[in-house]
Amino acid sequence: MRAAKGGAHEQGGKHISGGEQISTFEGITHAVNFLLEKGLTHSKGSPDFMQIQFECIHDSVRLLKPLDVQSHQIESVEKGQALARQLLRQAGVPKSSIETLDQLLPSYSRQGGAVLFDIHSDRPIDERGIRVSRMDWQPDNYEQWAAYHGVPRNLRMKEALVLATKVTSHPAAVAELCWSDDPDYITGYVASKRLGYQRINKLKKFGDEQGCRIFFVNGREDIESYIHYLKKQPIFIRWEEAE
Ligand code: PML
Ligand code: MG
């Protein structure tokens, strides 16, 4: 599902909401209703464009363990942003890529998809915005994970962790940087396979509608296959308690 206001995303409409689910045939009505409701009741406003698409998945579903989660409580947005940059450096993103980012961020915020950014050329690869799709986490397994880790149930975090786990598990991925475009949600994260999901409680100011979702990639890898993986490879997150 993707919803926008002022027309479709590709016609310059403002992104309102998006969502993905993997369902059985019997569960489609429930899944579509859930996504419809999600798009219609968003704090960013009422959409005047929504697209809900469902398609049969023929490929086998790959299972991935959720990234480990670590949370940082920071007292200011400036410190949160500084920590995010430090974590990106630790994940292998060069300083030059991080410096280029600041100039590019304002133009990224409207499209409701992610931008791929090549750490070798310091340039975005596809500026149209990629929608990562075909991923989910079965509710009962998610509940077990949340109870085990003492994490309050948070649909937004669940969806972000599903996406970050999918995105960072491919060999072309270096790291992801994300914060919401919702004005009332200021927590974001840096994720990488090695660092896990590093949550930062302040990455922007309340009221700010500028979000960010950037996938830093190694442009020397096969990026076409990475994009195909992001859009088409079905993924279930599955957690198992360590023995
Ligand atoms: C979004 O809502 O667009 C992204 C939210 C990212 C942070 C989720 C969390 O860990 O709380
Ligand atoms: Mg949003």
Helix content: 25-40%
Describe the largest sheet.
7 strands, mixed
How many helices?
A: 6
* Small molecules bound in the structure, each named once: pimelic acid, magnesium ion
* Sheet with the most strands: spatial strand order: 5-11-10-9-12-6-7
Structural class: alpha/beta
- How many domains? The number is 2
- SSE ordering: EEHEEEHHEEEHHEEEEHE
Mean pLDDT level? 93
Content of β-strand? 25-35%
Radius of gyration of CA atoms, rounded to a whole number: 17 Å
Low-confidence stretches: none
Spatial gap, N to C terminus: 38 Å
Shape: globular
GO molecular function, one term: 6-carboxyhexanoate-CoA ligase activity
Function: Catalyzes the transformation of pimelate into pimeloyl-CoA with concomitant hydrolysis of ATP to AMP.
Cofactor: Mg(2+)
Pfam families: BioW
Task: Write structural notes for this entry.
The chain is α/β, with parallel strands linked by helices. The chain has two domains: 50 residues, no CATH class; 174 residues, no CATH class. Helices cover 32% and strands 25% of the residues. The chain contains six helices and 13 strands. The strands form three sheets. It has a seven-stranded mixed sheet with strand order 5-11-10-9-12-6-7, sandwiched between helices. The mean pLDDT is 93. The site of pimelic acid has 12 residues, from helix 5 and strand 10.
